[in-house]
TrEMBL record:
<feature type="transmembrane region" description="Helical">
    <location>
        <begin position="108"/>
        <end position="126"/>
    </location>
</feature>
<keyword id="KW-0812">Transmembrane</keyword>
<feature type="compositionally biased region" description="Basic and acidic residues">
    <location>
        <begin position="8"/>
        <end position="18"/>
    </location>
</feature>
<feature type="transmembrane region" description="Helical">
    <location>
        <begin position="138"/>
        <end position="154"/>
    </location>
</feature>
<dbReference type="InterPro" id="IPR026841">
    <property type="entry name" value="Aur1/Ipt1"/>
</dbReference>
<keyword id="KW-0472">Membrane</keyword>
<feature type="domain" description="Inositolphosphotransferase Aur1/Ipt1">
    <location>
        <begin position="76"/>
        <end position="256"/>
    </location>
</feature>
<feature type="transmembrane region" description="Helical">
    <location>
        <begin position="42"/>
        <end position="59"/>
    </location>
</feature>
<protein>
    <submittedName>
        <fullName>Phosphatase PAP2 family protein</fullName>
    </submittedName>
</protein>
<dbReference type="Pfam" id="PF14378">
    <property type="entry name" value="PAP2_3"/>
</dbReference>
<feature type="transmembrane region" description="Helical">
    <location>
        <begin position="221"/>
        <end position="239"/>
    </location>
</feature>
<feature type="transmembrane region" description="Helical">
    <location>
        <begin position="245"/>
        <end position="263"/>
    </location>
</feature>
<feature type="region of interest" description="Disordered">
    <location>
        <begin position="1"/>
        <end position="33"/>
    </location>
</feature>
<dbReference type="InterPro" id="IPR052185">
    <property type="entry name" value="IPC_Synthase-Related"/>
</dbReference>
<feature type="transmembrane region" description="Helical">
    <location>
        <begin position="192"/>
        <end position="214"/>
    </location>
</feature>
<keyword id="KW-1133">Transmembrane helix</keyword>
């Protein structure tokens, strides 16, 4: 092969975002092969996500509903926020509840976008960033997994279930479908699993992923707006305290740490594309004739 052809191939591979293999996959350890980004398989991903969410729901709802401890912890969180000067959830809750169209929209936002946007981002990664898909998905899974530990160790009642009736359960008042822990659905979900907030953990994951990888400026801006709006919604509907959101962000930081430790760098720094199986088996050194 002429030297010029090798240079062109090198440049094309760099533009594709595909790493340059300097040796074949033979001889590498199984662990090293597991850490190598590869093209995701649709059937496997659908099965994995379905099983993972089923397991998450099963474990989350199997955590004992420790009502007394959950209400005691809620009182403690509320006192801490008052001491910090950030206990404005009640004011936000009452203000939004006075605008019917706004609070009804927030109820449906809370019930639907949590799943719709997260799945949408996963599909986008699968189609457009296959080399980063598995690592970014690992962040989401690790974040959700450590959240289950929080639900078990720290039962917490949401503001709307606190004693005293200071907060308004907007779903009950406006008779909307917006919370698995209100109305006829309350027996299907653990009502005292508010810390950490996975509405925040998942939405910040979506926002960071969109901001880091999207090429259209206004889409990147939307990526940042989405978790900010989600924070307002979870507080306005009295489903979470501010500090629940902090817990969600800490879980997400743990998820990024797990992915970075496994892949050796942050998911967004991995190549966008991956070579197919035939190209991975090919030994190719740049610049060799």
């Amino acid at each position: 092969m002429p030297m010029g052809d090798a240079t062109v191939r090198t440049r094309e591979r760099l533009e594709d975002g595909v790493p340059h293999p300097v040796a074949g996959t033979t001889g590498r350890s199984p662990l090293s092969r597991l850490r190598t980004p590869r093209r995701p398989r649709l059937w496997f991903e659908i099965l994995l996500i379905a099983l993972s969410y089923w397991t998450y729901s099963l474990v989350r709802n199997a955590v004992p509903e420790q009502r007394t401890a959950a209400l005691r912890n809620a009182d403690w969180i509320w006192r801490v926020e008052q001491q910090l000067g950030i206990a404005v959830e009640e004011s936000v809750n009452h203000a939004v509840n006075s605008v019917t169209w706004l609070v009804v929209g927030m109820n449906y936002y809370y019930a639907t976008l949590h799943f719709v946007v997260t799945l949408g981002v996963l599909v986008w990664l699968f189609r457009s960033h296959p080399g980063r898909y598995a690592a970014t998905r690992l962040v989401l899974f690790a974040t959700t997994g450590v959240a289950l530990v929080g639900y078990y160790l720290y039962p917490l009642a949401p503001p709307r279930l606190m004693d005293g009736g200071h907060f308004i359960d907007t779903v009950m008042v406006h008779q909307t479908w917006g919370s698995m822990a209100s109305g006829d659905l309350k027996n299907m979900s653990n009502q005292y699993a508010a810390m950490p907030s996975m509405h925040i953990g998942w939405s910040v994951w979506c926002g960071l992923t969109i901001f880091a990888l999207a090429s259209v400026p206004w889409v990147r801006v939307l990526g940042l707006v989405y978790p900010a709006l989600t924070l307002v919604v979870i507080v306005a509907t009295a489903n979470h305290f501010w500090l629940d959101a902090v817990g969600g962000v800490l879980c997400l930081a743990f998820g990024f740490g797990v992915a970075a430790a496994w892949y050796g760098r942050l998911p967004y720094a991995l190549p966008r594309l991956v070579p197919d199986a035939a190209r991975r088996r090919r030994v190719w050194l740049p610049g060799r004739a």
